[in-house]
Specification:
Order of helices and strands: HEEEHHEH
Strand order of the largest sheet: 1-2-3-4
Radius of gyration: 15 Å
Number of strands: 4
CATH class: Alpha Beta
Structural class: alpha+beta
CATH architecture: 3-Layer(aba) Sandwich
Number of domains: 1
Length: about 110
């Protein structure tokens, strides 16, 4: 929600969760052909401390689940790019520094 609010305050307009696109991106900028995913560090296998945690029980299940999620994310990103879409992935751990997130979003959306 904080990314949506930030992007809206910056003056960009977007659609949410377009199911006709691979991966159902979180924010879709149709006229720019750009999408933003906001990934949870644990669920999408980020290499930060939060993403590197594995639950103490059923470890094999969680490792495999997260591995499949990472693999699926890569496939969906490739599909989007092959369809002519640019993709930006933001991580949950990055959202603590909204100034940096703002700069990444603006440079991504304003790039040709």
């Amino acid at each position: 929600m904080c990314v949506r609010s930030l992007v809206h305050r910056l003056g960009y307009r977007f659609r949410l969760h377009r199911r006709d696109l691979p991966g159902t991106p979180d924010l879709v900028f149709v006229s720019r052909r750009k999408v933003i995913f906001v990934h949870g560090c644990f669920w999408h296998g980020h290499d930060c401390p939060r993403g590197a945690r594995i639950p103490k029980t059923n470890r094999a299940y969680w490792r495999e689940k997260i591995r499949r999620n990472v693999q699926r994310d890569g496939i969906q990103r490739s599909e989007l790019e092959s369809l002519g879409w640019s993709v930006l992935s933001l991580w949950e751990c990055e959202l603590g520094d909204l100034v940096a997130v703002r700069e990444r979003i603006v440079s991504f959306l304003d790039a040709e």
